[in-house]
Design brief:
Layout: E1 6-9, H1 13-25, E2 29-33, H2 44-48, H3 54-57, H4 61-65, E3 71-75, E4 77-82, E5 87-92, E6 95-100, E7 103-106, E8 110-112, H5 120-123, H6 130-149, H7 153-159, E9 161-165, H8 169-189, E10 199-203, H9 215-227, E11 231-233, E12 237-242, E13 245-250, E14 255-260, E15 263-266, E16 270-272, H10 274-283, E17 293-294, E18 300-301, E19 304-309, E20 314-315, H11 323-337, E21 354-359, E22 362-367, E23 370-374, H12 375-388, H13 392-407, H14 425-431
Parallel strand pairs: 1-2, 1-7, 2-3, 7-19, 9-10, 9-15, 10-11, 17-20
Antiparallel strand pairs: 4-5, 5-6, 8-16, 12-13, 13-14, 18-19, 21-22, 22-23
Helix pairs in contact: 1-11, 6-7
The chain binds flavin-adenine dinucleotide.
Pfam families: Pyr_redox_2
Catalytic activity: a quinone + NADH + H(+) = a quinol + NAD(+)
Organism: Rhodococcus oxybenzonivorans
C-alpha cells in the first residue's frame, strides 16, 4: 500500500502553511485536496463584485508547492480515516484510494451554517468558494440588467433589493460593496438606475454590527453603512426564506415583517466541513459549536498524538475561526513534525490584531489596545491582504484593479451573458 510520512488534507490557509514548513525541511508529505486551488477567501467579495477575477485569488496549490521536491499534491476528497492503522481513504476520479501516514494534518475548513434550516441554502447566495462568488456576481449583474429593461415597477423594486443576513465581516463587506456598486458603477452605466433605487438590507440577530469587535468599532461600522444608504436591522432574526423574500422577526417584542427581494445572501455563521464529523467519530474527539473539533492544547485530536486538526475545523480556547489561527496552527504542527518543537508542545496564538472592511475608504482595525477607523484602517486592510495574497503577478494585478475600481469606476470582471432559452415554436407561430 501507498505510504508517506505526513498526509495533509485541504489546500487552504492551514494546509498551505504546514506544507511550506514541511517542504522547506525536506519532510516527505502528500497534500490531498478536493480543489486544485489555494483560495484566498478574504478577497472573495471582490470577485463577487467584479473587482478581481477568480484566478487572481485562487492560484494553483500544485504550482505553489512545486519547489518542494519532498511534497506531492493529489486532487481527491478524503472520506475516511482509520486512526489505528494510520490510513486515510480518498476518492479521486471515482476511484477509492488508501494512503498510509505517520502523521495526519486535517485542515478541511468550514462551510456556511444554516442552523438546522438547510433548505435556506437552496434560496440564498453564499460566499465560501469561487463558485459561490461567481454565482453571486452573475446574479448581481442579472438583477441590474433586468431592472433596466423591465416595465413592472414591483419587479424592478425586488430586482434592486438585496438582503444580506448576518453582519459579521462577510455580511458587512458585501452590504457595503453592493450599495457602492449601485452608485459608483451601475449609476454611471445604466442611466435609469440610481443609487437611491437600490436597497440593501443588512439583518443581524445580535444588537450590533460586527459583534466580535463590539463597542466603538461596531458603532462606527453601523454609522458608516447607514451613511452609505444601507438599512441596518439589528436584534432581528430571519425566520423564513423563500425565492421571493425573507420573514424577519424579533422574538422579544412580537415584531414580524416580510421583505421581498430577488437576492438574499446568507453569511450568518460557519459549520465545519464533513471530514470533521468523520474524524470525531473515528477518534472519539468531541465537537463544539458548528461541529468544530475540540482539539487538545497541542492541536491533536481525540486520544491520538499523530492526528492534528487546524484552522476553521478546530476549536481551541475560543480562538477566532480566521486565517491567522489556521496559518499559525499549520506552522506549529509542522515544527513538531520537523523536530523543531517537542511533541505535545501547547499551541500559543499570537494575536496580531483584527480588521474588517466596510466600503471604499472605510475599515476598522484593532491591534492590542489600538483601534483605528476610516481611511488609515482601509489602507492597512488592503496592504495586509496584499502581503498574504500568493504570487507577485496576483499582487500586481490586484493593485492595478484596486486603482481602477476604488479611484476610478471600473469593475473589469463584470461579464454576464444571459442564458437564452430556446424559443417556444407555438409562440413563434402565434406571433407570425
Ligand atoms: C468571505 C470570507 C471572508 C473572510 N475574510 C477574512 C479576513 O478578512 N481575515 C481573516 O483572517 N479571515 C477571513 N476569513 C476566514 C478565513 O478565510 C478562514 O479562517 C480560513 O480560510 C481557514 O483556513 P482553513 O485552512 O482552516 O480552511 P479553508 O481555507 O477553508 O480550506 C479548507 C480546504 O479543505 C478542502 N477540503 C474540504 N473538505 C475536504 C475533504 N474531505 N477532502 C479534501 N479536501 C477537503 C477545501 O477544498 C479547502 O481547500 C474569511 C472567510 C470568508 C469565507
Amino acid at each position: 500500500m501507498d505510504r508517506t510520512q505526513v498526509v495533509i488534507v485541504g489546500s487552504g490557509f492551514g494546509a498551505l502553511a504546514a506544507a511550506k514548513k514541511l517542504g522547506k525541511a525536506g519532510t516527505p508529505f502528500v497534500l490531498i485536496s478536493e480543489t486544485t486551488e489555494h483560495l484566498f477567501q478574504p478577497l472573495l467579495y471582490q470577485v463577487a463584485t467584479g473587482v478581481l477575477s477568480p484566478g487572481e485569488i485562487a492560484p494553483s496549490i500544485r504550482a505553489i508547492l512545486a519547489k518542494y521536491p519532498s511534497g506531492d499534491v493529489r486532487l481527491g476528497r478524503v472520506v475516511d480515516v482509520d486512526p489505528d492503522k494510520r490510513e486515510v481513504v480518498y476518492e479521486a476520479g471515482g476511484i477509492r484510494h488508501t494512503l498510509g501516514y505517520d502523521t495526519l494534518i486535517a485542515a478541511t475548513g468550514a462551510r456556511q451554517a444554516y442552523f438546522g434550516r438547510d433548505e435556506f441554502a437552496e434560496v440564498t447566495y453564499a460566499l465560501k468558494t469561487v463558485a459561490d462568488a461567481d454565482r453571486l456576481r452573475r446574479q448581481i449583474v442579472r438583477c441590474f440588467e433586468e431592472a433596466h429593461t423591465t416595465s413592472d415597477p414591483e419587479r424592478r423594486r425586488d430586482l434592486l433589493h438585496f438582503i444580506v443576513i448576518g453582519a459579521g465581516p462577510t455580511g458587512v463587506e458585501l452590504a457595503g460593496q453592493i450599495k457602492e456598486l449601485a452608485g459608483r458603477y451601475f449609476e454611471k452605466s445604466l442611466r435609469d438606475v440610481t443609487a437611491e433605487d437600490v436597497t440593501v438590507t443588512l439583518v443581524e440577530g445580535a444588537g450590533e454590527t460586527l459583534p466580535v469587535f463590539g463597542g466603538k468599532l461596531s458603532k462606527y461600522t453601523q454609522d458608516s453603512l447607514e451613511r452609505a444608504g444601507v438599512e441596518v436591522v439589528l436584534g432581528t432574526m430571519v425566520t423564513d426564506i423563500d425565492e421571493h423574500g425573507a420573514t424577519l422577526s424579533s422574538p422579544g417584542n412580537g415584531f414580524e415583517k416580510r421583505l421581498t427581494a430577488e437576492t438574499i445572501i446568507w453569511s450568518a455563521g460557519i459549520q465545519a466541513n464533513d471530514f470533521a464529523a468523520v474524524l470525531a467519530e473515528r477518534t472519539g474527539c468531541e465537537t463544539g459549536r458548528g461541529g468544530r473539533l475540540l482539539v487538545d492544547e497541542d492541536l491533536t485530536v481525540g486520544r491520538y498524538d499523530d492526528i492534528y486538526a487546524i484552522g476553521d475545523m478546530a476549536s481551541l480556547n475560543n480562538l477566532p475561526a480566521q486565517s491567522p489561527f489556521a496559518m499559525q496552527g499549520g506552522r506549529h504542527v509542522a515544527a513538531i513534525i520537523n523536530g523543531k518543537r517537542a511533541a505535545g508542545t501547547p499551541f500559543t496564538y499570537r494575536d496580531k490584531g483584527s480588521m474588517a472592511i466596510i466600503n471604499r475608504f472605510r475599515a476598522i482595525t484593532r491591534v492590542g489596545k489600538i483601534e483605528l477607523t476610516g481611511v488609515l484602517a482601509w489602507f492597512l486592510w488592503l496592504a495586509v491582504h496584499l502581503v498574504y495574497l500568493v504570487g507577485f503577478r496576483n499582487r500586481y494585478v490586484a493593485v492595478m484593479s484596486w486603482c481602477g475600481s476604488f479611484l476610478g469606476h471600473r469593475r473589469p470582471h463584470f461579464h454576464y451573458a444571459q442564458e437564452i432559452e430556446p424559443a417556444d415554436s407555438n409562440e413563434l407561430d402565434r406571433a407570425a
